[in-house]
Amino acid sequence: MWIRAAVLLCLLGLVTPASSDDPDPKSQPEFYFTRLMYTDIYGRGPGASGFSGYRGFGRGAWMTDAWEADNKYMWGIDRMTNVKLSREPHPMSIMDPDLFKFPYIYAVEVGQMELSDEEAARLREYLLRGGFWHVDDFWGLEQWNQFARQMKKVFPDRQIQELPLTHEIFHIFFNIDRVLQVANVRLGDMYTMSGGRTQTWEQPSDTEPRVLGISDDTGRLMVLITYNSDLGDAWEWMDDPDYPALFTGYAYRMGMNSIMYAMTH
Question: Is the pLDDT of residue 158 over 50?
Answer without folding.
Answer: yes
